[in-house]
Write a structure and sequence with these properties.
By secondary structure, the chain is an alpha/beta fold. It is built from 21 helices and 26 strands.
Length: 638
């Protein structure tokens, strides 16, 4: 018998999802253990108590008094701490437990409950539901391959940490182990394509749960609302009195829930700490609480991995992140002497410095909201001694992490660290397919780049990993268009997975202007045809070449996507993109800096009136001077 079966009496009274033993056992991999009127879970090292005794149930009428609630919570926590032998303790409760030490880690949120039956939807929501009814059919289904495929696509398009990805791979296990879990699917009326899915949980006698939800990119508006209504109607049919919509997580999800009426809120406080081990013969006595030696230590502890409850929240509601990319200049030191770079043309005013761990730590509010962190600016990122710590920190908070390197520093040891720290892409810079074509990158011969790529491939092989992918960051100089025809062969020799071809968009000195493509450039059609042929050859070999040349029409969103991406330099200064802030001393009419994260919260800088006005001006066709003629503002031709 499943261990969760012995907890059926507690699941029958559940009003928060962590009290549903079959669910947590299946997706969390922990063993359920009854603990008085509450549910606990253990996996050897960790113990988790869902400290929501019956006195806190929002459906109680009349509700319990504050004295009754407080006493019930204290009793539940005391019983759990007296019984568990786990060193790591997490309490999920409506309030921070009194037994927690002062330096315990705390996360807060709130569950939202809707009374059943649902109220009649308002005009806008009613119209959305009508549209969804015209375009889709909703029904309960058995788990199948197309449901799994939709979830795989969902994971790929959301920056989930490893824990959340594991939970998603276990949804089928949860549906199989819990007979009262129902999978609702929305399919297109036209061709029966799967548009979205949601999972309802009905094991409790009084409370139904809106569990997992995911939708395809092509899902029409209103379908998610129609799925929630179908889930709620099934709960009404079964006689449930309330629907737990889960935690708030972010404003987008909270707004989705508010459409259905004023929800009752129940606080969620997740408190975690480590305890000293019990001495022999001390059964029944609580060891004193001690703080966890939380890795990582120092300033980078700000990048602590999500806790148990947060991983479950992300699994259920996804990991909404408003920033597509946070580009971080970890250093401006560079061994290269590339002729087209201001590091060479303005070397007398160049400011070489490394980003400190304190500045990188201050970025964590942005990193936690970014899908990707790209560790590279105007220098060679691997020269910063803390590079690998920064990369690992960003991975801990669920970001995809990438970098671009000249390749000279990718030795055997560095290659092994690049594999170990969790990067998914390492790009190597080139301007040609042979030493002559790469001559503009003085100081970094093509042979050094090839050696670095070989070292990284060997490190991947030894670690039996497919990541990081190896990309070529290829700068297409206008005088060397014919060189790009040899790019597919070079990629094959180097073992590169993909190449991204860019153009010279920042003119560091007048003598390089002829190497840049500009909007309406008469050289563009020939260059495009050469690129298309090269991309087709690479695709036939199972590799990819991405490219784009400036068009003639200015767009509201430039190629740097400044409405969802931003750049921070090694000193902690925030700018729209890397081109707006080269690290040179003195005045620069093209420089745009909107704040210093050492003096202001980074999210406040992002939302400041000045930064917002800069973005809005470009969106309305009135860009600031540095952007007005930038080739990245013009549509990309492919």
């Amino acid at each position: 018998m499943s261990p969760a079966r012995g907890c059926a009496h507690l699941t029958a009274q559940a009003y928060v999802m962590e009290q549903v033993a079959e669910y947590v056992a299946a997706v969390g991999g922990m063993r359920p253990v009854p603990c008085g009127a509450c549910m606990a879970y253990e996996d050897g090292e960790r113990g988790v108590l869902a400290a929501y005794p019956p006195e806190f149930d929002p459906a109680l009428d009349p509700p319990s008094s504050e004295e009754e609630r407080g006493a019930a919570l204290r009793a539940a926590v005391a019983e759990f701490l007296a019984r568990t032998r786990c060193a790591s303790v997490t309490i999920l409760a409506p309030a921070r437990p009194d037994a927690a030490p002062p330096d315990a880690a705390v996360r807060t949120d709130a569950y939202a409950f809707l009374p059943l039956p649902l109220q009649t939807p308002g005009g806008k929501l009613r119209n959305m539901l009508r549209r969804a009814e015209r375009e889709c059919v909703i029904a309960a289904e058995a788990w199948g391959e197309d449901h799994a495929a939709l979830l795989r696509d969902f994971c790929r398009s959301h920056a989930l940490d490893e824990g959340a990805r594991i939970v998603h791979t276990r949804i089928d296990r949860y549906l199989a182990s819990c007979p009262e879990a129902v999978l609702f699917a929305a399919r297109a009326r036209s061709d029966a394509r799967l548009l979205a899915l949601a999972v309802g949980e009905y094991s409790s006698l009084t409370t139904a749960f809106y569990m997992f939800a995911a939708r395809a990119p092509f899902c029409p508006p209103g379908v998610a609302d129609a799925l929630l209504r179908a889930l709620a109607r099934e709960a009404e049919r079964r006689g449930h009195s309330q629907l737990n919509l889960g935690l708030g997580v972010n404003e987008g999800i909270r707004r989705f829930k508010r459409k259905w009426g004023q929800a009752r809120l129940l606080p969620y406080v997740e408190t975690t700490w480590r305890r000293a081990p019990r001495a022999e013969g001390a059964a029944g006595r609580q060891a004193p609480a001690v703080a966890a030696p939380a890795p990582p230590v120092g300033p980078l502890a700000a990048y602590a991995a999500p806790g148990w409850g947060e991983r479950l929240r992300r699994a259920v509601f996804g990991d909404a992140r408003p920033f597509d990319c946070l580009q971080v200049e970890v250093t401006s030191h560079c061994p290269g002497r590339c002729g087209y770079c201001p590091h060479t043309t303005r070397r007398e005013s160049w400011r070489s410095r490394h980003m400190t761990e304190e500045i990188f730590a201050a970025l964590h509010p942005l990193a936690r909201r970014a899908r990707r962190v790209h560790l590279q600016g105007w220098g060679e990122p691997l020269l910063n001694p803390r590079f690998f710590d920064f990369a690992a920190a960003a991975r801990r908070v669920g970001c995809a992490v990438s970098t671009t390197t000249c390749g000279a520093a990718v030795t055997g040891e560095a290659a092994r660290k690049l594999v170990a720290c969790g990067l998914d892409i390492v790009a190597f810079s080139l301007t040609g397919v042979n030493e002559a074509g790469n001559a503009a990158r003085a100081g970094i011969p093509l042979a050094a780049v090839a050696a670095g790529i070989h070292a990284l491939r060997e490190a991947r092989r030894q670690a039996a990993r497919s990541l990081p992918q190896i990309h070529v960051a290829y700068l297409l100089l206008a005088s060397q268009v014919e060189e790009v025809a040899g790019l597919p062969d070079l990629m094959a020799r180097l073992g590169a997975d993909a190449a991204v071809v860019s153009t010279l968009d920042y003119i560091a000195a007048p003598e390089w202007e002829h190497e840049a493509f500009v909007p309406g450039d008469e050289r563009t059609p020939h260059a495009l045809e050469t690129l298309r042929r090269a991309a087709a050859r690479a695709e036939a070999d199972g590799r990819r070449i991405h490219y784009g040349l400036p068009g003639v029409t200015p767009l509201a969103e430039c190629a740097e996507r400044i409405r969802s991406c931003l750049y921070v330099d090694a000193d902690g200064m925030l700018s729209p993109c890397v081109y707006c802030n080269p690290p040179t001393a003195g005045e620069d009419e093209r420089r745009r800096v909107f704040g210093d994260i050492r003096r202001a919260a980074p999210l406040k800088i992002w939302t400041s009136p000045a930064f917002a006005a800069f973005r809005d001006a470009q969106a309305h066709g009135q860009p600031d001077a540095p952007c007005a003629s930038c080739p990245k503002r013009f549509g990309r031709l492919r």
